[in-house]
Known about the structure:
With 159 residues, this protein is α/β, with parallel strands linked by helices. It is built from 4 helices and 5 strands; from the N terminus they run βαβαβαβαβ. It has helices at 16-30, 55-77, 91-101, 123-130, and strands at 5-9, 33-40, 83-88, 104-110, 135-139.
Amino acid sequence: MRQQAVIACVDLDRKAETTVRRAANLARLCQATLLVAHVVDQSGFEAGYSPFISPSQARRETVRTAGAWLRGLLQHVGAGQAEVIVVEGSLQTQISRLAEERHAAYIVTGQSRWGVLGRLAGLESRLQAVNPNCQLFGTGTAPAGLAIPALDMPLRSGI
């Protein structure tokens, strides 16, 4: 049987550290593997991203840079053994795909993309369709009316 995973889905912002620390604590408590994922939105590249490089070069460089940033963050929080995944595409599609492929027990996200019009609105039902045993958590303060449970575990230094 394949080991279960905790997937931390993060943006490259100041809130990523809290999300990764909480996901690392959860993975440790559940004896699960930790994956830290970032989804690169493809839409900006096709609209003339840069006059100096092609859209495909810009995508490759963005994926490479995001991966390096996340590996640095993992070293900083003491979770360097976690796997970094940077993928391109639709946020919900890629998170659902990862949850199914990696047998995720938990998905942990920041709260910045939640809400009625947020890019993650509707993700919980989509996850249940591909992996009914996967639980979705948000870190931080949830917008009013949000039904996603918050993961407010204590943050330990070093993880």
